[in-house]
């Protein structure tokens, strides 16, 4: 099964790697205690949120877990278990089946900030239990949010939601209705890709809501949500990260009406219908003679539109550059088989019919491991990766390098040149 995971960069990695195993074990034990305490007596999901969990150093593969594995690789280490994870186990911030258990996995070291750390652990804990609750881990890209008007109406929706959050629960109907009108406008403009927003919200949106509602102090949640809305315009991309904002915001609005609203959702649920139900409002449908322009002024629309028009000029130039790079110059194409991808969801770039550009990423598959650190890679439908080849590729044993990326091939895999501008990987056993 193809698996999508999120990569969280850690600026403090050097400090944490320098720790002794003993101090790291004690720190890991304290983190397990934090998330166990935060998950205790939770009433938002039917399944137990806290469960098998491990922290894995991506460099050394040193692993700290809250329980043993069936093969005895993880040995008792004080109140926890530790060991070196085998090389054939793919690691990332995700959930994995390994040695008889479904584990929540996080890359070590974890964030130093307590709220960010517990938020992350609860987020990944949701991914471990979501399949049991009928909430599949589907992660498409909402490509409409790469366009100027898609971003404008998304940011206006967030402003209206913030206005609603700032009012008493019984005074929110006006702003919530307006938020849904901005959302409906996106549906009208982009009928083909707009449904992916809902799919993302029922996956990453619910995961991030779980992280916020269980991982953060109750009296700090509103401030956190306001900050997410206020800084949303600074994000380079929403096509994969939008649900990280709307999930917690809509979720908290519903939480204040019914803390157990999540117990009634399924994979077909959507936030407009839930808001309409719990706040007793009518879902808006745009009329030809009823433009949303008049509403834009209520939520500082002029500044949003001005800013997004400037960004659009830059976006179009970047799109032209990427199109030239991946379609008119030498490339290496790789067919994906059983892929695991780590990436930053805030930087993805939609290239329309060609796919999605990932400026940085770590990819693991049956052919080996790929690290992209600058030029970017193009991925189409989670089936094919395209990498720029530049003037020539460098081969050194099992290492293949190109402009801004490096591949470590597994045994029997090799690079072949198809023609003057096209390379691919082949399995020598076939």
Describe this structure in words.
Strands 1-9-12-13-18-17-16 form a seven-stranded mixed beta sheet, with no helix packed on it. Strands 10-11-14-15-8-20-19 form a seven-stranded mixed beta sheet, with helices on one face. It has eleven helices and 20 strands. The chain starts with a strand and ends with a strand. Helix content is 37%, strand content 21%. The protein is flat and about 65 Å long. The protein is α+β, with helices and mostly antiparallel strands and 430 residues long.
Write the layout of secondary structure elements.
Layout: E1 3-6, H1 13-17, H2 21-39, E2 53-56, E3 62-65, E4 75-77, E5 80-84, E6 94-98, E7 101-107, H3 114-129, H4 148-165, H5 173-189, H6 195-215, H7 221-230, H8 243-255, H9 271-279, H10 293-296, H11 301-327, E8 331-335, E9 340-343, E10 349-350, E11 356-358, E12 361-365, E13 368-372, E14 377-380, E15 384-388, E16 394-396, E17 399-402, E18 405-409, E19 413-419, E20 422-427
Parallel strand pairs: 1-9, 2-7, 8-20
Antiparallel strand pairs: 2-3, 3-5, 4-5, 6-7, 8-15, 9-12, 10-11, 11-14, 12-13, 13-18, 14-15, 16-17, 17-18, 19-20
Helix pairs in contact: 2-3, 3-6, 4-5, 4-7, 4-8, 4-11, 6-8, 8-9
């Amino acid at each position: 099964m193809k698996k999508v995971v999120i990569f969280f960069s850690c600026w403090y990695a050097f400090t944490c790697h320098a720790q002794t195993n003993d101090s790291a074990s004690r720190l890991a034990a304290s983190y397990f205690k934090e998330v166990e305490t935060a998950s205790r007596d939770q009433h938002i999901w039917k399944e137990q949120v806290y469960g098998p969990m491990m922290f894995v150093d991506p460099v050394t593969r040193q692993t700290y877990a809250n329980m043993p594995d069936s093969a005895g690789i993880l040995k008792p280490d004080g109140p926890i278990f530790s060991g070196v994870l085998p090389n054939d186990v793919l690691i990332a911030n995700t959930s994995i089946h390994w040695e008889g258990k479904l584990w929540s996995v996080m890359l070590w070291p974890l964030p130093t900030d307590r709220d960010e750390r517990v938020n992350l652990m609860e987020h990944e804990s949701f991914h471990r239990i979501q399949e049991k609750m009928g909430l599949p881990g589907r992660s498409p890209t909402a490509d409409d949010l790469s366009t100027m008007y898609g971003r404008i109406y998304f940011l206006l929706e967030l402003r209206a939601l913030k206005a609603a959050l700032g009012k008493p629960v019984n005074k929110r109907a006006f702003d919530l209705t307006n938020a849904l009108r901005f959302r409906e406008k996106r549906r009208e403009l982009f009928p083909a890709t707009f449904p992916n927003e809902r799919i993302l919200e029922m996956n990453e949106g619910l995961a991030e809501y779980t992280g916020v509602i269980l991982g953060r102090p109750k009296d700090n949640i509103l401030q956190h949500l306001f900050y997410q809305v206020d800084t949303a315009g600074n994000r380079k991309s929403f096509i994969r990260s939008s649900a990280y904002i709307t999930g917690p915001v809509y979720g908290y609005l519903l939480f204040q009406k019914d803390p157990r609203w999540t117990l009634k959702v399924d994979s077909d649920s959507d936030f407009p219908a839930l808001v309409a139900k719990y706040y007793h409002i009518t879902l808006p449908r745009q009329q030809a003679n009823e433009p949303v322009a008049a509403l834009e002024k209520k939520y500082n629309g002029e500044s949003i539109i001005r800013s997004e028009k400037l960004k659009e000029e830059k976006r179009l130039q970047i799109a032209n550059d990427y199109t030239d790079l991946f379609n008119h110059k030498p490339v290496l194409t790789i067919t994906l088989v059983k892929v695991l991808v780590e990436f930053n969801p805030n930087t993805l770039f939609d290239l329309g019919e060609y796919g999605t550009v990932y400026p940085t990423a770590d990819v693991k598959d049956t052919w080996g491991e790929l690290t992209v650190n600058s030029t970017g890679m193009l991925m189409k439908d989670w089936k094919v990766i395209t990498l720029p080849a530049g003037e020539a590729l460098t081969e050194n044993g099992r290492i293949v390098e190109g402009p801004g990326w490096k591949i470590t091939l597994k045994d029997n895999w090799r690079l072949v040149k198809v023609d003057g501008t096209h390379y691919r990987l082949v399995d020598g056993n076939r």
